[in-house]
Amino acid sequence: MARQRGGYGGDKPVFSFADNRGVEMTSVAPDASDTTARGGAPRMAHRAVASDVTLQMLISFNVYFSVCFWVATVVATFVKTNGAREDFDEIRPVMICMYAVFEPARLYAGFAGNLQEQVPMLIGFVALSFCVALPLHFYFLAGQMGVVAFDKALNLFAVVYVVAQVVAGVVAARKILASQSLSFFMSELR
């Protein structure tokens, strides 16, 4: 990385590389007059990233866990009910279907809210986690008929994991909100 003297508060880092056509490209630190090649929108490369890595890791791991959780819950239901011939719990299939519908929406809201730094999506993620995911897991933990030790272990882990995501989501939303507020007030000073 080379340094270039400029009017942007001192040295500007200059990155140069060649693309696959052999054309050399150079990237410099953005000035107030620096715009992208596509249409004049200012570059935001100088802005600090406010996404929360902890929340992103929890959500990423939960993508795999939720698939395994759903498969394990369906298999355990079939084993407990002898192939669904003896299932007297009418609510359990509804809860399994609700989980299959709301969990992808909840995880998408978390991914989009965190990576795109959108506070409303993060609040939606926290609300879906608190109002939909936790009651579903509590139902599978203690509310369904014929709860066995496997159900308790699986759903206790899921409850702790969702609570950790709620806490990380609130922390991430506050961090992003503080970053965006600072950016807004700093832009007002220019």
Task: Throw out a few tags for this protein.
4 helices, three-stranded antiparallel β-sheet, 2 domains, elongated, membrane
Describe this entry's structure for a reader.
With about 190 residues, the protein is mainly alpha-helical. The chain has 2 domains: about 1-45, no CATH class; about 55-180. About 65% of the residues lie in helices and about 10% in strands. It has 4 helices and 3 strands, in the order E-E-E-H-H-H-H. The chain has helices at about 55-80, 90-115, 120-145, 150-190; strands at about 1-5, 10-20, 25-30. A 3-stranded antiparallel beta sheet has the order 1-2-3, with no helix packed on it. Helix 1 packs antiparallel against helix 2 (about 90-115), helix 1 (about 55-80) packs antiparallel against helix 4 (about 150-190) and helix 2 (about 90-115) runs antiparallel to helix 3. The model is unreliable at about 1-20 and about 25-30 (pLDDT under 50). This is Transmembrane protein. Keywords: Membrane, Transmembrane, Transmembrane helix. It is a multi-pass membrane protein.
